[in-house]
Amino acid sequence: MTRHYGVLVVGGGLAGLAAGRTLAAAGVDAAVLEARDRVGGKTHSTHTDHGDVVEYGGQWIGADQERVHGLVEEFDIDTRPQYGDGSVLGRVDGERYVEETYEDVLRSLPGRSGAELFQAFEEIERCVDQVPRDTPQDAPRAAEWDATTLRTWADRQFDTPEARAAFERMVPGIYTAEPAEMSFLFFCYYARTAGGFDTVAGLDHERDSHAAVVVDVQSIARSMAGELGDAVHCDRPVSRIVQDDGGVTVHTPGRAYSADYVVVALPPTLAGRLAYEPVLPAARDELTQRMPNGSVVKCHLRYRAPFWREDGLSGFVEDDVGPANYYFDDGYPDGETGRLVGFVCGANAREWVGHTPEERRRALTDQLVSVFDDERFGTPIDYLERSWPTEPYSRGAYHGYPTPGTMTACWDAIREPVGRIHWAGSETATRWYGHMDGAIRSGERAADEVRGRLG
Amino acid sequence: MTRHYGVLVVGGGLAGLAAGRTLAAAGVDAAVLEARDRVGGKTHSTHTDHGDVVEYGGQWIGADQERVHGLVEEFDIDTRPQYGDGSVLGRVDGERYVEETYEDVLRSLPGRSGAELFQAFEEIERCVDQVPRDTPQDAPRAAEWDATTLRTWADRQFDTPEARAAFERMVPGIYTAEPAEMSFLFFCYYARTAGGFDTVAGLDHERDSHAAVVVDVQSIARSMAGELGDAVHCDRPVSRIVQDDGGVTVHTPGRAYSADYVVVALPPTLAGRLAYEPVLPAARDELTQRMPNGSVVKCHLRYRAPFWREDGLSGFVEDDVGPANYYFDDGYPDGETGRLVGFVCGANAREWVGHTPEERRRALTDQLVSVFDDERFGTPIDYLERSWPTEPYSRGAYHGYPTPGTMTACWDAIREPVGRIHWAGSETATRWYGHMDGAIRSGERAADEVRGRLG
Question: Does residue A196 belong to the interface with chain B, where contact is any CB pair within 8 Å?
Fold first, then answer.
């Protein structure tokens, strides 16, 4: 143990780096301890042999995500619009369809099911508006909604099986959890922090959370880390946090660090795996036992050209067969390389996460050949993927979510400091929960809390 | 690292000791590593100043719990019948009642609600019978039941609010979780492993899981540990398990142990906190993220005499006010000391776990004075308690439970070995899940698996 810091930040993702940077800017002697050999957490960019950048993790930003936009501008990072020209393609119950927009897909559901689905969206927005951003557990119907799985809610809400199925198909791609696994209260709360379900579902084009792609998104983290310089320590997996009246000691293999305060900027399920002395209060530990991470494998398929564009297709695909629930065109508007990104989410991730990358590559290309009815999808020039549930320092993505009954039982502990320990991470954000923007906000908020105590 | 074992067992509770003992009996060189300074896990007995024994954890055994009975007989351990003479007492919606039996309480609910409740019990048993003990995820209606919280099930099942409320009051004391937190599938599965809901709810007196009390229950663990001798290592909290083609290394502070195989005999949420190299498969890690432990504080109040018995009361109390959901008379049939044991469960545990023992003592005595309407309950001679969610090497009790949606998504991993690692613990038992009997069975089953591999 060589020196005493003002604040140690555990985790060098966007939340932790935003905390460290905010503290450093205020003149606090802060250091960031990161388990991996890189910063960025669930943002991880790779430069390919083809001269472009592929994102293993987060990549999209929405128009009103002010804090991530702020950093993108401040660090002069490139963005590009999400490609969206052309029709969307899908397959449901073995039937292929092509429509102008995804909204058209939903509106053209058979009989009155399309109208019923949009009535349900209106009902959802009414419910979302009733959930307070700071204290969702105080929503008027919190106890009832937290005891109701989203699947049960859908069962009650929908008369037509087509509307219900269309709704339930949307969920895993947005939440990386199945409707059986989350409560209606969390479903609404997540949307509330984003400004509405229409925003996270891509139904509000002005506020669409997929409006733009950050080029080399990890450069946001690298830029913050660059400011912090040698205050960022990689390859330092924290195993234990010991606090007493005099301060905090943070243990990593072969080295311990001391400070006045700690900001733990990890998803709750990983924060819960550290050893704490004294042990964490039951209220906090019970929360971390009840906030698993979502399940997703993100897969990039690259082709010699975006030939689907010539056929008038946007590259957006919805498929109820899988492995991927959704695909997006991930290429530049005028890109020469064809790029599709597929999301294998929820139950599909459970089915496919135990397979090899080669097996997944084959299954995804088979899926694309079948759903596009086009053999050209069988021969990608490149395949890259990231199985987030397998990553030891993530163990899932996009974020942790409270299981049914947890928000009303344990949510008081989500941001409540424990002695000298403060909590960050996108799950603690009251704006853009689970998003890069929320992660940044959470780190800044935790830094402000600690600064207030440092005086 | 001094020697190479055949098998290392992580956890010296009933599951781990049963595994170690079974292996040793088969001539395998096995050792048990226990984090605490004592064996027994969630069985922990203390000899009081009054010359008797108080149980901080498990204490009851049922008539057809063959394995725990087998050890009790083998080690010549005393048992005593649960005291049950006299009437039961309760308070619901501010109204006190006294009835001959708890079953009478339920049958005498107002109007048709009593009959409705017993119809629901019949419906529950029909559902319980449909859940396979080995593979509950294969129940005919598994997907539907796993997506339905028990609260939602009750909402659909009951017409009368009195029957529903009576049912929901029963749940936390049995499951240490609220109806909002568990799926109907798990609710049924747990009962299935016990032979029926009537058994765990104390409605079948022949198979009642509370039929007898083991005197000094921890002596079961101590007896098994005694057989194992210096093969049981206490104060050895395992932090990391490393496996490769040659074997397994188990790391504890300052010392590592090597073996051919490991049996991890911890509740899933604690097993998930160890570091594993290579990292656990996603299927296993996702399961441990979704199996929190229940919430319970067990509280013993002791009086100069069991004066309630003279008033014709059994000491069984149900109360919807709290802190304790239930009390039992914990005394000997002819005991001179009055003993009551109260269970603060589920939401009540969340409310009270952050208070001091002194505050809980006062709240419980106030509760007893009020519900018995008898000032003598205000002056116990002794108060002992154990807040299980606060215990660093338990972090909850009686057991872990899968959150809604988890059994159908992740249950394939509950007993599936990972390389050289096998899994024990009462949550892996297909008979008496969550009970001492199930813990013993699970350890014996895991030991048999490993023996099969040792050849």
Answer: no
Amino acid code (one letter) for B367: Q
Domain B102-200 belongs in CATH node 1.10.150.530: no
Q: What is the mean pLDDT of residues B260-278?
A: 98
Fill in the amino acid letter for A133. R
Q: Measured between alpha carbons, how far is B108 from B115 in angstroms, rounded to an integer?
A: 9
Fold classification of A45-84+210-216+293-390 (topology level): Polyamine Oxidase; Chain A, domain 2 (3.90.660)
Structure tokens at A1: 């143990």
Q: What is the DSSP string of A150-217?
A: HHHHHHHH-SSHHHHHHHHHHHHHHHSS-TTTSBHHHHHHHHHHHT-HHHHTT--TTT-TTSEEETTT
Q: What is the reported pLDDT for A272?
A: 98
Amino acid at B269: T
Pairing between β-strand A255-264 and β-strand A275-277 as defined by DSSP bridges? unpaired
Contact B147 A390 (CB under 8 A): no
Average pLDDT of the segment spanning B141-162: 98
* Distance (Å, whole) CA B128 – CA B137: 13
Cβ(B282)–Cβ(A354) below 8 Å? yes
Minimal CA separation from B100 to chain A, in Å = 34
**Chain B residues touching A419 at Cβ < 8 A:** none
Give CA angle at B181 (B323, B201), nearest 5°. 65
Identify from B288, B391, B393, B403 which residue to disrupt to test chain A contact, counting A C-beta atoms within 10 A and taking the largest count.
B403
CB atoms closer than 10 angstroms to residue A57: 22
Residue type, B36: R
DSSP designation for A412: G
Per-residue pLDDT, A1: 56
Report whether pLDDT(A259) > 90: yes
What ipTM score was computed for the predicted complex, to two decimals? 0.96
Task: Tell me, yes or no, if B282 comes closer than 8 A to chain A by beta carbon.
Answer: yes
Mutation pick from A403, A411, A427 vs chain B, by most beta carbons of B within 10 Å, is: A403
Q: Can you name the CATH fold of B4-41+217-292+400-454? A: FAD/NAD(P)-binding domain (3.50.50)
Mind giving me the DSSP string for B405-446?
THHHHHGGGSS--BTTEEE-SGGG-SSSTTSHHHHHHHHHHH
pLDDT in tens, B60-90: 999 889 999 999 999 999 999 999 899 999 9
Instruction: Provide the chain A residues 374-413 that lie in CB contact (below 8 A) with chain B.
Output: 387, 389-390, 392, 395-396, 403-406, 408-410
Which positions ≥6 away from B250 have C-beta within 8 Å?
Answer: B8, B10, B33, B238, B240, B241, B242, B256, B257, B258, B259, B262
pLDDT at residue A204 above 90? no
Task: Provide the pLDDT for residue B1.
Answer: 56
Q: Is A269 on the interface with B (CB under 8 A)?
A: yes
The pairing of beta strand A255-264 with beta strand A247-252: antiparallel
Residue B191, pLDDT score:
98
* Reported confidence tier of residue A264, pLDDT bands at 50, 70, 90: very high
Return d(Cα A232, Cα A213) in angstroms, integer: 27
- The pLDDT of residue B50 is 79
Contact predicate B412/B136, CB 8 Å? no
Among candidate residues A355, A348, A13, A318, the one with its CA nearest the CA of residue A177: A348
Distance (Å, whole) CA A189 – CA B362: 38
- Number of CB atoms found within 10 A of residue A60's CB: 21
A233 strand-pairing partners: A33
At the topology level of CATH, where does A4-41+217-292+401-454 sit?
Answer: FAD/NAD(P)-binding domain (3.50.50)
CA pair distance B296, B347, nearest whole angstrom: 9
What's domain B45-65+76-84+210-215+293-390's architecture? Alpha-Beta Complex (3.90)
| pLDDT at residue A74 is higher than 90 | yes
